[in-house]
Amino acid sequence: MRLSFVSWSLVSYALLVLLNAQGSSGRKIITLGNGKDIKKEDSIDLHQGGDDGRSSSHMDHMDPALNVFFTPKDLKRGKKMPIYFSKNSSSTSPRLLAREEADSIPFSISNLPYLLQLFSFPQDSTQAKAIEYTLTQCDLQPIKGEAKFCATSLESMLDFVAALFGQNTQFKVLTTTQLKDSTTLLQNYTFSEAPKEIWAPKMIACHTMPYPYAVFYCHSQESENRLYQVLLAGENGEKVEAAAVCHFDTSQWDPDHVAFSVLGTQPGSSPVCHFFPSDNLVWVPLPAQ
Ligand SMILES: *[C@@H]1O[C@H](CO)[C@@H](O)[C@H](O)[C@H]1NC(C)=O
Ligand SMILES: *[C@@H]1O[C@H](CO)[C@@H](O)[C@H](O)[C@H]1NC(C)=O
After folding, report:
1. From ligand 1's centre to the CA of 177, what distance in Å?
2. Is the CB of residue 111 less than 8 Å from the CB of residue 119?
3. Which residue from 31, 162, 201, 234 has the fewest beta carbons nearer than 10 Å?
4. Is the CB–ligand 1 distance for residue 177 below 6 Å?
5. Which domain holds residue 171?
6. Residue 213 resides in a domain
7. Has residue 2 been placed in a domain?
8. Which atom, in ligand 2's list, is nearest to the CA of 52?
9. How far apart are CA 236 and CA 230, in angstroms?
């Protein structure tokens, strides 16, 4: 089996962890870097270089990858803000397996020793830790009001989406698309049009997980969320069609969620919005015909 393990990066991984770290269940979040929970002070530990220019003083020492949070009042044409998008290179994505192939490989934390042998990763390697992290996250029970599923193939992802939306519901996918190959990770972008709200009575966000082949952590939370499509113009001329979500009820979030320190807010005090990285998929139902 030809498998590469190039796509996972600590930065997008850290982002995933924080995007998932919602809810009050006390679900533990771990970092690869130091084995601690991500708290606001720790996020710099995941720093991967490539940063420059932060705008305001409370963002000093901030991981550049945290430049994805904003509030609904920012959603207007002409708004300018620094945003981090990971490099757009399909060559670094892990291979998406067909369902038959994916189903022939065990996918459970109880199979960790076998899987490390299969992929030839030494037990203490970062790759082994990443595999362990992904399997652990995928084995967790959903928190209250959440539906979750780890998809190891496109077919299984579509099955989950169809089951959650109802078998007769049509649906579509939204992504963040860099309209040309991106070279800059962090730069100032201007909202070049009024952001467009996407009808989304329900939504399922699928985040890529660090793994030797493509694994998506898909989840859906029952709470007031609004989905947007935003056309962004970078200072260097790059254009991004970005998907973004605003979570209107943050009252149950962990007060240590990094979004609050980035935005200077508290749980329940104001909505939290964020852009989706370009390797995420957001599924929404289509209105019945
Ligand atoms: C990456 O850039 C190419 C153009 O170079 C574009 O066609 C593709 O949609 C982009 N991919 C993502 C995920 O943004
Ligand atoms: C964005 O623009 C502000 C001022 O317009 C500047 O201070 C800041 O360094 C810029 N940030 C980036 C990442 O270029």
Report:
1. 6
2. no
3. 201
4. yes
5. 10-285
6. yes
7. no
8. 13
9. 18
Q: Give the confidence band of 222 by pLDDT, cuts at 50, 70, 90.
A: confident
CA of 184 to the centre of ligand 1 (A): 14
CB neighbourhood size of 236 (10 A): 10
Ligand nearest to the CA of 67: 2
Answer whether 188 contacts ligand 2 (Cβ < 6 A). Answer: yes
- Region of poorest pLDDT, from 178-187, 202-211, 268-277: 178-187
Question: Rounded CA gap, 203 and 219, in Å?
Answer: 8
Q: How far is CA 274 from the centre of its chain?
A: 10
Atom of ligand 1 nearest to the CA of 176: 14
Q: How many independent structural domains does the chain possess?
A: 1
Question: Within 13 Å of residue 16, how many CA atoms lie on the same side as its CB?
Answer: 29
Give the Cα separation of 10 and 47 in Å (integer). Answer: 8
Mean pLDDT of 212-237: 93
Instruction: Confirm whether 134 is domain-assigned.
Output: yes
pLDDT tens-place string over residues 117-176: 999 999 999 999 999 999 999 999 887 788 999 999 999 999 999 999 998 899 999 999
Distances 67 to 13, 157, 255 between C-alpha atoms, Å: 14, 28, 19
Q: Which residue has the higher pLDDT, 181 or 198?
A: 198
Residue 72 lies in a domain: yes
**Tell me: the pLDDT tens digits for 208-219?**
999 999 999 999
Q: Is 61 in the pocket of ligand 1 (CB under 6 A)?
A: no
Cα of 186 from ligand 2 centre, angstroms: 10
pLDDT number for residue 31? 27
